[in-house]
Amino acid sequence: MTILLSILGVGVMLFSGIGFLVIGIREHRQRVLIAREGIPATGTIIERRVLSREPGFVFYTFDYKDRTYTGKQRVSYEHMNRINIGEQVSLRFLPSNPSIALLSGEREDNPWTCMPIFFGCLFLGLLLALPVWILLAFRS
Questions:
Q1: What is the pLDDT of residues 39-62, one digit of tens each?
Q2: CB burial class (10 A; 0-12, 13-18, 19+) of residue 133?
Q3: How confident is the model at residue 67 (pLDDT cuts 50, 70, 90)?
Q4: Which terms are listed as keywords in the entry (predicted)?
Q5: CA proximity to 23, closest of 139, 119, 128
Q6: Which of 15, 25, 100, 130 lies 20 to 30 Å from 62 when distance is taken between CA atoms?
């Protein structure tokens, strides 16, 4: 039973670590692409959603080529308190895929940008250290 739980734990850590890394790398690539190729636009904050133990989200809309797009972005508590519903905000979006957009200018705030990569590296690092821990445990 202990071996089965250990294998399950290793599988969960491996799957989580890889998943976090994939998400983090994808988000980073989108940010780089928006910074390089993004078109500036003006949007409107339509909703604020505060979460209990982590930063919240703001939802915004903007128009491009006779179509309205809606986006959401995670923001810090401090930043959330400065953003109001109905407020005009600067943003950048990809002209090839306008649904990929981020707030820019003074409203740019990305408190969790590095977190998926951090947790992915942490889980995979712990997983790599596991054989050393096992050897030390059986040695004593």
A1: 999 999 999 887 776 677 889 999
A2: exposed
A3: very high
A4: Membrane, Transmembrane, Transmembrane helix
A5: 119
A6: 25
